[in-house]
């Protein structure tokens, strides 16, 4: 949602352009998955193939279908592929899929173009769903400019800093309760090599607007920078943006993981799990894997808020959420599925069958008051809830900006812009060019986008 009283991005009726732009998405942490499609009376759901979604697929027939009689056919694809397919089907209003996983990035564009079914009436009538239990930042991020709710979160996340408590203790180091990036850089230097093969920190370097650009942009925000001013002036070569980018690139080059230009969420998660890094700044969703049964580092990790410099907080905000296609002729059944998949009941089911660390959390206040969840996720529960609650997509930095968004710029062109800028930054991390050269090229790319909105 744009800032009140500020110019909103003009879509200019570019429905096809929006769909094409949204198809150019970033890489994520999804792995390989299968697909299935069924017509007839079955509900057709298109979703990303991350572990939480795969778990949902396994539980649906035995529980949801048994309780409601509604059959569900899933199409499960990697993140790049699923966004492409969703954009195509929803933009054409083909109605092949009734429900799809969308994020708070796409939702404003999908809603504006009339591709989504409003959910306010369903949520109001379904008192057991308890809409007020959904964390406020997520409710707001899934509400469009027209004030209507267009999706329900399956899980939510912010970002925070994870670190090896045992390594810090052995080195005589103390992690501040609210660290600054300068403190983190010093700690990375002091823990680099603390154990054989261990680096001081892991930071994403993999190209993609959802990979290196996500954490980097939070550093830019808290160091006083912005991609665009309120009037759409690109600021990628401004001193603040340069300072943050140089800091990030230098930190990962000097004390970051091996192969940083090819390292994204999945690679950093593996490095942290395998004891190859002392710290990791990334998604709060990673904590569940670190604390899962069988994890080599379970119980050894500490969690603190995203590092800051000039802002009070800097964690990002992201959610995979369920959207109903406007053209679907099965909206009532679709809501029943969404209500179940995002319910307290479903979280209880996952907790009982797979363990509470696997619960798709980060969306409900009640989750963080649940004693069963806290017993298993107590190490990171409070920090996660606070990070999500403090996330402010409207004002994530020190200066006004033209759109909402913390780790992204809320325009469809950002899928392409962010990914192309990411390629420049990753090349700097690899040592193939300077930060100044990377940002000079990036500024030109941003200027082309700015022309569309001035």
Strand composition percent: 5-15%
**H/E element string?**
HEHEHEHHHEEHHHHHEHEEHHHHHH
Report mean pLDDT, rounded to a whole number.
91
Uncertain regions spanning at least 5 consecutive residues: 1-20, 22-39
Structural class: alpha/beta
Q: What order do the strands of the largest sheet run in, or round the barrel if closed?
A: 2-1-3-8-4
- Main beta sheet, described? 5 strands, mixed
Instruction: Please state the overall shape, judged from the principal axes of the Cα atoms.
Output: globular
Helix content: 40-55%
Give the termini distance in whole angstroms. Answer: 18 Å
Descriptive overview:
With 454 residues, the chain is α/β, with parallel strands linked by helices. 42% of the residues lie in helices and 10% in strands. It has helices spanning 15-23, 51-68, 79-92, 107-112, 120-125, 136-141, 165-170, 181-191, 213-222, 239-255, 265-273, 286-290, 331-341, 344-354, 371-377, 381-390, 414-429, 435-451, and strands at residues 43-48, 72-77, 99-103, 152-157, 159-164, 279-283, 301-305, 318-324. A 5-stranded mixed β-sheet has the order 2-1-3-8-4. A 3-stranded antiparallel β-sheet has the order 6-5-7. Helix 1 runs antiparallel to helix 3 (79-92) and helix 9 packs across helix 10 (239-255). The longest helix has 18 residues, at 51-68.
